[in-house]
Design a protein that fits this description.
The chain crosses the membrane at residues 15-37, 58-78, 98-115, 122-142, 179-196, 203-223, 243-261. It is an enzyme of class 2 (transferase). The chain is mostly helical and 279 residues long. The protein has helices at 25-47, 52-77, 80-85, 100-118, 122-146, 177-199, 207-223, 241-262; strands at 7-9, 14-18, 21-24, 161-163. Strand 2 (14-18) and strand 3 form a beta hairpin.
């Protein structure tokens, strides 16, 4: 094997440390998703007659829904026996273990609570939030790359990555599945933002959300065929856990798109429902 034909990846996941405190690429990229996303969402909300105060509140709901959902998703989907036997370990988020499918469920629930409390059309909220969620998802996958984790099977393709810091597989070129997902989701972000910028309030209710869920989890389902399984129990399954969890979300996205096709009507201006309300 000619090692020079492949990409040697030996990035330190830690940017710097001060005493016991360390700043890591993953954490920085995770946070940037919320910071940049908040600015984009503010532009969207103001353009459609909402206030930036709405965005401040929804961002808090998003952070809580994402972190709690992602952590609980990992504990319940990938290692329930361990975490149910050691519940205090669930709180140790800094040790790693976040699941994107759990984050999706957490976000959907958090935004439903937000919409109900502040009198927003739930689907209007989802249609706008998925734009920034797509961007955040791309940044998180770049964080996985910086951590040299969640990579793919061996490959002889010239863009295969040799993940030097993964001791178990350090000499074998592998599919950089983190980059595959990051590029796919960033492309989805560009598409969703372009559709919003072109049509804004005229967008059929549910269109952006349906596109996001269908494309995101279809691509996730397909890329999983190139990935190493995250847990040993997945080796005994026909599909891995990520694929099983993606299937109902793909179906949900297709159902939403079907109803959009059958009845393409925009939401109320500014996403208002019931009485007009601005946070």
């Amino acid at each position: 094997m000619n090692m020079l034909t492949y990409i040697t990846w030996n990035v330190d996941p830690e940017i710097f440390s001060i005493g016991p405190i360390s700043v890591r690429w993953y954490g920085l990229l995770f946070a940037l998703g919320f910071v940049i996303g908040q600015r984009i969402l503010s532009k969207i909300y103001v353009a459609e007659g909402r206030s930036e105060g709405d965005v401040d509140i929804i961002t808090m709901y998003m952070i809580i829904g994402t972190v709690v959902g992602a952590r609980l998703g990992h504990t319940l989907f990938y290692a329930p026996d361990y975490y149910l036997s050691n519940p205090i370990e669930i709180l140790k988020i800094w040790e790693g273990g976040l699941a994107s499918h759990g984050a999706t469920i957490g976000i959907l629930l958090a935004l439903w609570l937000f919409s109900r409390k502040y009198k927003f059309d739930y689907m209007w909220v989802l249609d706008r939030i998925v734009i920034v969620v797509a961007l955040g998802g791309a940044l998180i996958r770049l964080g996985n790359l910086m951590n040299s984790e969640i990579f793919g099977h061996p490959t002889d393709l010239p863009w295969g990555f040799i993940f030097v810091r993964s001791s178990e597989f350090s000499q074998v070129p592998r599919h950089p599945t983190q980059l595959y997902e990051a590029i796919t989701v960033f492309g989805l972000f560009v598409l969703l933002y372009w559709l919003w910028a072109k049509y804004k309030a005229a967008l059929p209710r549910g269109l952006l959300f349906g596109i996001f869920v269908t494309v995101l989890f279809t691509s996730r389902f397909l890329i999983e065929f190139l990935k190493e399984n995250q847990e040993d129990f997945e080796n005994e399954l026909v599909l891995n856990m990520g694929q099983f969890l993606s299937i109902p979300l793909i179906i949900a996205g297709l159902i939403v798109l079907f109803f959009v096709w059958r009845n393409p009507k925009p939401a109320a201006p500014g996403g208002r429902t019931g009485t007009s309300a601005s946070v």
